[in-house]
């Protein structure tokens, strides 16, 4: 396995970014129309786990909720039919004593860990929207088996860890822009050493988080440890970005908490499989 991103992964990540930037309200139909949602199920595409991580990191940079990440994983694992992929796919996963389906939508198809559709109506499932970008369906009457295959568990940790790093990317970009434009005492706050140190530490934590996320894919025996470290570093980085923004960093208008909540939701999901 290489640490380099395959060509199809880089191309897909670029197109996903374009769609999420230009048409967030129509993101999922456009991802389906472009064939990106079915990429994981296409053996000819040869999408590797590093390419999938690149796509996942890109998706994490946006507040828009789509089922792209679980659909790509489910396509890679179970090869659902095109109609199912177009609806969006999530997989029922354990979280403590509960079973949840992440990135839920009203039309999504929920599979068990063997790839079989569950008799669950997504629109009627109890929703948990702690994370705006990663809404969950809490399932009643959990499936008999919620234990993913070992190699699927590794890929789940690697890909969701990459999403967490994407969340940091978004906060880092906004924090740098804020430091360049926000003025205090007649000059941009980037001139102050405390702010510069926060931004530097944010960048260091982000790079360490990305290294840990890549390690998830390369060291399957310790993937859970690496994903935990990724989430911890991502949380630290985002909190630094919030501090750079001062008091407004906690407000709904700025919205940095959406990215923090996304990481915490990922951590709660992956942590249940430790």
Automatic annotation (TrEMBL):
Q: Which UniProt keywords apply?
A: FAD, Flavoprotein, Oxidoreductase
Q: Which GO terms describe its molecular function?
A: acyl-CoA dehydrogenase activity
Please list the residue ranges annotated as the Acyl-CoA dehydrogenase/oxidase C-terminal domain: 159-271
Q: Name one Pfam family in it.
A: Acyl-CoA_dh_1
Q: What is this protein called?
A: Acyl-CoA dehydrogenase
**Where does this protein come from, organism-wise?**
Micromonospora pallida
């Amino acid at each position: 396995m290489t640490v380099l991103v395959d060509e199809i992964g880089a191309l897909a990540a670029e197109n996903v970014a374009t769609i999420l930037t230009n048409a967030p309200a129509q993101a999922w139909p456009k991802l389906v129309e472009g064939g990106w949602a079915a990429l994981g199920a296409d053996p000819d595409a040869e999408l590797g786990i590093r390419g999938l991580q690149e796509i996942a990191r890109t998706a994490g940079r946006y507040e828009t909720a789509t089922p792209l990440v679980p659909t790509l994983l489910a396509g890679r694992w179970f090869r659902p039919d095109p109609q199912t992929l177009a609806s969006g796919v999530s997989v029922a996963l354990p979280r403590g004593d509960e079973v949840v389906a992440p990135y839920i939508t009203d039309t999504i198809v929920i599979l068990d860990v063997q790839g079989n559709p569950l008799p669950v109506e997504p629109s009627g499932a109890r929703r948990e929207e702690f994370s705006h970008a990663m809404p969950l369906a809490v399932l009643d009457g959990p499936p008999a088996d919620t234990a993913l295959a070992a190699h699927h568990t590794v890929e789940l940790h690697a890909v969701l860890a990459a999403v967490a790093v994407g969340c940091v990317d978004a906060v880092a970009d906004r924090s740098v822009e804020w430091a360049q434009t926000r003025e205090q005492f007649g000059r941009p706050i980037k001139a102050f050493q405390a702010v510069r140190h926060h931004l530097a530490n944010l960048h260091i934590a982000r790079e360490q988080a990305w290294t840990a996320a890549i390690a998830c894919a390369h060291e399957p025996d310790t993937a859970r440890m690496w994903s935990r470290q990724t989430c911890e570093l991502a949380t630290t980085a985002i909190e630094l970005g919030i501090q750079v923004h001062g008091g407004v960093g906690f407000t709904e208008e700025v919205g940095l908490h959406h990215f923090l909540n996304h990481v915490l939701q990922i951590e709660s999901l992956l942590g249940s499989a430790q």
